Request: fold
Amino acid sequence: MSRPAFAIGLSIALSGIIATAAYAQESGENPALTPAEIAQIEYEQVMALTPDPENGRRVYLTCAVCHRPEGWGAPDGTYPQIAGQLRPVIIKQLADIRARNRDNPLMYPFSVPRILGGPQSVADVAAYVAQLPMTPQNGVGPGVDLALGQEVYAEHCSKCHGENGEGNEAEHIPAIAGQHYLYLMRQFDAIRTGRRKNSDPKMVKQIDGFTPRHEAAVLDYTSRLRPPESKLAEAGWTNPDFPSYVRDPMGMPPVPPMPAGLMDAPTPPEPPAYPSVPPAPR
Reply:
């Protein structure tokens, strides 16, 4: 490993260690507490604070590196759309990541108190992100099995996430309407395999019997659920809070569109027959 790379890695590791120690000292953390209990304590602290969205704008500078100034993430599923997400959900996920109750090695160094700030900063940035308008062009799936997806969603998902994917603030259940299809796929697999430690056990049980076809169909359908028009950005909108942000890396122009017809493909065959809806958990 080169010296610069080693130095960068060491710096990130030390910042995480120092930040964790500082957080423990500031919050009076009891070493006997579990990560889930530590996260719950911070969640309650943050929810009791009055947020300052203007300070949230400044805190969001740390987040914009990956989630982009608009908070729209990436259609390839690398980063989720967080713009317009319910404020309690943002707070809950940040608290879980900071307490290591949700493993996210890429985000963790940016979320620790030494970098992001304490509970007030979490309250502020969550309020800022929640009010950002959402992209009307999130990544969606292939669209070949939507009837099954709708059926599975109504049977297994709508009770918690809402008929239109609007989520539930009181239960900090995320809004999933308008989320990128490939991100939904990635998180679904992480929840089912236990890699996402802060998953709701009821959901883990609920999705246990899904076949690959059920999974792809319901998440494709979910990605096409539309948030209310009031939550969507207008065409061409960019975040005015980041006027100097270079959206084309290294000043390179956007990739030109493919010539018409080049990517056309024949209509795919009908998928094989499976039970229409996976059995409900017992």
User: Anything to note?
Assistant: The chain has a mean pLDDT of 86. Residues 3-27 form the longest helix (25 residues). The two ends are 52 Å apart (CA to CA). Residues 140 and 179 are 8 Å apart (CA to CA).
